[in-house]
Amino acid sequence: QVQLVESGGGLVQTGGSLRLSCAASGDRIRRYAMGWFRQAAGEERKIVAALTRNGDTTYYSDSVKGRFTISRDIDENTVYLQMNNLRPEDTAVYYCAAESTYWPLKVADMDFWGKGTLVTVSS
To answer: Which residues of the chain have a pLDDT value below 70?
Structure first.
């Protein structure tokens, strides 16, 4: 079982950048496909970016493609989400999640979740 703790959220102006971190404990992230999801107020949780277990394939939603980058540090057992050129519509709680079996990743399939970190983009 893996425990996930997100950090790095905050308030940023339109066009700014943030880097989210997801620190894992209890197991190694290389055993899981890892995903970043977000949930805006009043909306359902949606996938933003994902990385396969062996790290050779990434997925990005159309809304963040070209602006966000998912990566991982195996030694640090941490997954990152670099977010550039942020927009007000990126405002949401961002969650890190791990999945041991399925790809592509879906909200319903994820095995473990962090508690989230809030990102607010002001216009």
So the answer is: none
Residue pair 2/40 in contact (Cβ under 8 Å)? The answer is no
Spatial distance between the Cα atoms of 32 and 37, rounded to a whole number of angstroms: 15
Closest CA to 121 of 79, 93, 96, 80: 93
CA angle 70, 71, 77 (to 5 degrees): 130
Which residues are 70's β-sheet partners? 81
Amino acid type, 53: R
Is there a contact between 18 and 10 (Cβ–Cβ < 8 Å)? yes
Write out pLDDT tens, residues 44-56. Answer: 999 999 999 999 9
Residues 122/13, Cβ–Cβ less than 8 Å: yes
